[in-house]
Amino acid sequence: MKQVFKAVLPAALLAAAAAGAQAQDFPGSKPITLVVPFAAGGPTDRVARDLAEAMRKAMGGNASIVVENAAGGPGGLIGANKVAKANPDGHTLLVHHIAMGVFPSLVRNLPFKVETDFEYLGMINDVPMTLIGKPQLPANNYKELISWLQANKGKVNLANAGIASASHLCGMLWQSAVGVDMTTVPYKGTAPAMTDLMGGQVDLLCDQTTNTTSQIEGKKVKAYAVTTAKRLTTPALKDLPTLDEAGQKNFQVTIWHGMYAPKGTPAAVQKKLNDALKVALKDPEFLKKQEGLGAVVVSDKRSDPAEHKKFVQAEIAKWSPVIKAAGVYAD
Prior knowledge:
The termini are far apart. Strands 1, 2, 3, 4, 5, 6, 7, 8, 9 and 10 form a ten-stranded mixed β-sheet that branches. The chain is an alpha/beta fold. It is built from twelve helices and ten strands. α1 runs parallel beside α10, α2 packs across α10 and α2 (about 45-60) packs antiparallel against α11. It folds into two domains: about 30-125 and about 255-325, Bordetella uptake gene, domain 1 (D-Maltodextrin-Binding Protein, domain 2); about 130-255, 3-Layer(aba) Sandwich (D-Maltodextrin-Binding Protein, domain 2). About 45% of the residues lie in helices and about 20% in strands. Keywords: Receptor, Signal.
């Protein structure tokens, strides 16, 4: 036993020393890739690109941080799986939203475990949702919208950006809350859903402010309410009532984004990434860009990895009964 121990100990020490050196030099000359599991130009992509610049500055300005779009699968499953299976050296990271909280109950054959196959690096922001309609809708406020829904049962189309997308989850909850069945129209992304809404091919959409603010400001859609507890301060959205104010009591949905690394990423590398993330979350330019989109940058303890993980676990528990009741699943 002693001989085996002596043979193994130097190897273990060498491995530990190598890991320490890697962490000290991180990120080195190799670029860090932020994988976005959706197409370019969407809400999560915009968050990731703004964050990449803020984190680059936070890491001294010498780090190279690029965004890679790996779209596909329900809720961005393909991109998330790519990161789960990536080399755990800190150079391949995931920026993802609320889908991380619904994957376990929504996807039957999930190729990874949300709670154990990732290192949690911290939350990024909270993004309110807005309930919007095509410009031709006769309803001019939420009360009129509900009356219109009641008068048009079986004829209303509710768009979303695909299964497990933020708009799908919000729409599913809202449809249940109002008690009116609508025809759900899934698209392959937010952009085509918004295009058809503005063109009048579909009636309604519940989507993130990061994707709807400019269309609301340009009066390309009709806006009815926000899904937050309080009104937003963003100029283009400040006059929108909350759903609670409008009469839909106790309805609140906030989409959030977090950053993840593959399981097994060295602890020292995780700390460097979390330190950079926390600095980036206070970057004035990043804050300004997020505020302009109606997003609220995380300023509480959820920027800590342990609290981030605890929050996602709570979201998994929250969404499981909702999805089960809706009977919506993906393979």
